[in-house]
Every structure is written in structure tokens, then in C-alpha cells.
């Protein structure tokens, strides 16, 4: 069933979009990531212009993250106080990111920037997560099946001022690192159309020292407000949010997130991370090849002669 997307100006199969939304929703629920880092490149692959994919995908992340976080609230695995600190940084980063995005759009360079950002970030994050997950699995086998909690003892984070107590995470640390992590994720949300979970989750575990069980829920909680704010800025400043595309992705994403949170309960943290790392690497390779290989059509005309 073909459906015309007015802002993207392309016709796409509606069931394909629902399926993509559902698949990314499952990942969102399982891994605590918004899923945008996979969904946005998938939208590129089916012919959606990068500027529209980025702005609209931020919208879909709001719904799948909200759906996922409800399940975590029921299990009390959300550190609300930490989430609010991360959100404060995220809103600042999102505002800055949209300014950069609009400037590059005016120069006509935004499509290339978005794709390059994806190749670099997915490559680095995927490789680091894969190596770390393999090491964690090896250690857990040596330790007789119980993986050591990846929590650092005293680090530079504990030496910083403006400390705050985060009871749900059992932490007493400076608010500076969470705010900085939030700013980075906000910038990524605006430029790449991602919730930033693929950077947020490792940062919360290894930099902030949060227990893995509260990381997923807190990450999703933080993502909701930041991506909603990003969508609003994109919609009002550069008009690249496609409502038809967003609704189809939303429906699939909400259903998928509920399924994903149930699947996530049955898998070990190390297994989840290695699966996510493999997916990230595969998408990165595909995007990289698209940038390097000569396209079938060397020239393409945007809206030639009005149609």
C-alpha cells in the first residue's frame, strides 16, 4: 500500500514504515536506546531525504521512549533526579544543535554532514561496545557466570564540585558530568535525529558509574523531553517534520517498545550489549559503502520543473 509523504515528497509503502517503526521500537525497549541511530539510516536507505529523516525521527523516538519508560516506571528502575539533570543539559545541547543544523541546511551541506556523523559515531561506538561486551562475557565465564558490575571506584568524576545525591542510583557525584553528557546527547538529537542512547547508556555506566539496572529506564526518561523539544524546534524553524511519516513510525514504535521491554528481561546485560554493537557496526558499514561507492545516478534533480 503506497502512501505519499508530503514533506519528504516521496511515495513509500505504509506497511514497510510500520514494520521499521516496530523493529526499532523493540530495540528501544530492549536496550534503552531511542533507536534513532538505526531508524534514521534505514529511512535514508528507503529514499527519505536526510533533513526530513532527522527531524521526523526525533518525533518517533518520543513515542517509543515514552512507551518503554512506562514499563521501567512500573519496575522502579528509573532515577528521576538523574534524568532531570541529564534533561537540563540535553535541552541546552538540542538548542545549539538546531542552530548548527539550520546553518548547514542554508549552505546545502546538511545531508553530507548527517551521513558523515553517522558513519563516524556508529563506527566508533559500535567497535568500543563490541570489544567491551566480549571482555565482559569472558570475565563472567571466568568468574563462574557472575559478571562483575562495571562500576568504577574513585575517579575524576568524584573529585568535581557541586555534588548531589542520587538515591535510586546509589551515587553521590558532581552534577557537571551528567549535564555535559546531556549537552552532547542534545546536540546529537538535533543534528542526527537520535535519542543518543547509544552514547548515553555507555556514558551512564562507565563515566557516571550508575548500576546497569537503572540505566535503561533513566536513559529513556531523559530522551523523551529532549527529542520532543528537538522536534518542536525543527518543525518551527526549518519545516522538515513529516507528520504522515511520523504517525506511521509512531504506531509501529509504541507496539515494538512494549515487546522489547519484555524480551530484554530474559537476556543478560552483556548479551544485549553485544547484539546492539553488532547492529550498530552493520548499519555503519552499509552507510559507509553508500558514501564511498559511485551511485547509479550521478546526477539527481530536486523537484525538476516543479514535479
Ordered list of secondary-structure elements with their pairings:
Blueprint: E1 2-5, E2 10-13, H1 14-31, H2 36-45, H3 50-74, H4 80-107, H5 110-142, H6 156-159, E3 163-166, E4 171-174, H7 176-192, H8 197-206, H9 212-237, H10 243-265, H11 269-292
Antiparallel strand pairs: 1-2, 3-4
Helix pairs in contact: 1-3, 1-10, 2-3, 2-11, 3-9, 3-10, 4-7, 4-9, 5-11, 7-8, 7-9, 8-9
InterPro entries: TM_pro_TauE-like, TSUP/Inactive_protease-like
Subcellular location: Cell membrane; Membrane
Main location: membrane
Description:
The chain has a two-stranded antiparallel ribbon with strand order 1-2. Helix 7 (176-192) packs antiparallel against helix 8 (197-206). The chain has one domain (2-145, 154-292). The chain contains eleven helices and four strands. The chain has helices at residues 14-31, 36-45, 50-74, 80-107, 110-142, 156-159, 176-192, 197-206, 212-237, 243-265, 269-292, and strands at 2-5, 10-13, 163-166, 171-174. It is globular, with a radius of gyration of 19 Å. The model is unreliable at 147-152 and 299-307 (pLDDT under 50). The chain is mainly alpha-helical.
Amino acid at each position: 500500500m503506497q502512501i505519499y509523504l508530503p514533506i519528504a515528497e516521496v511515495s513509500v509503502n505504509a506497511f514497510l514504515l510500520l514494520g521499521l517503526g516496530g523493529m526499532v521500537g523493540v530495540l528501544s525497549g530492549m536496550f534503552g536506546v531511542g533507536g534513532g541511530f538505526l531508524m534514521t539510516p534505514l529511512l535514508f536507505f528507503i529514499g527519505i531525504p536526510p533533513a526530513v529523516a532527522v527531524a521526523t525521527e526525533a518525533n518517533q523516538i518520543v513515542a517509543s521512549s515514552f512507551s518503554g519508560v512506562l514499563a521501567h516506571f512500573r519496575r522502579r528502575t528509573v532515577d528521576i533526579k538523574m534524568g532531570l539533570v541529564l534533561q537540563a543539559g540535553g535541552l541546552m545541547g538540542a538548542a545549539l544543535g538546531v542552530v548548527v543544523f539550520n546553518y548547514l541546511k542554508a549552505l546545502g551541506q546538511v545531508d553530507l554532514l548527517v551521513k558523515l556523523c553517522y558513519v563516524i559515531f556508529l563506527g566508533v561506538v559500535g567497535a568500543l561496545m563490541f570489544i567491551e561486551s566480549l571482555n565482559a562475557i569472558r570475565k563472567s565465564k571466568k568468574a563462574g557466570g557472575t559478571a562483575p558490575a562495571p562500576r568504577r571506584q574513585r575517579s575524576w568524576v568524584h573529585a568535581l564540585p557541586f555534588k548531589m545525591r542520587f538515591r535510586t542510583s546509589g551515587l553521590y557525584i558532581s552534577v557537571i558530568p551528567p549535564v555535559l553528557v546531556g549537552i552532547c546527547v542534545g546536540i546529537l538529537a538535533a543534528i542526527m535525529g537520535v535519542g543518543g542512547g547509544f552514547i548515553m547508556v555507555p556514558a551512564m555506566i562507565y563515566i557516571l558509574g550508575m548500576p546497569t539496572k537503572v540505566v535503561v529506564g533513566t536513559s529513556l526518561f531523559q530522551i523523551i523531553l529532549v527529542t520532543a523539544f528537538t522536534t518542536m524546534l525543527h518543525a518551527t524553524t526549518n519545516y522538515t517534520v513529516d507528520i504522515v511519516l511520523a504517525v506511521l513510525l509512531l504506531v509501529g514504535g509504541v507496539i515494538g517498545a512494549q515487546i522489547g521491554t519484555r524480551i530484554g528481561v530474559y537476556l543478560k546485560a552483556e548479551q544485549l550489549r553485544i547484539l546492539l554493537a553488532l547492529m550498530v557496526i552493520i548499519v555503519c558499514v552499509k552507510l559507509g559503502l553508500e558514501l564511498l561507492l559511485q551511485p547509479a545516478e550521478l546526477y539527481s534533480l530536486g523537484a525538476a520543473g516543479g514535479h
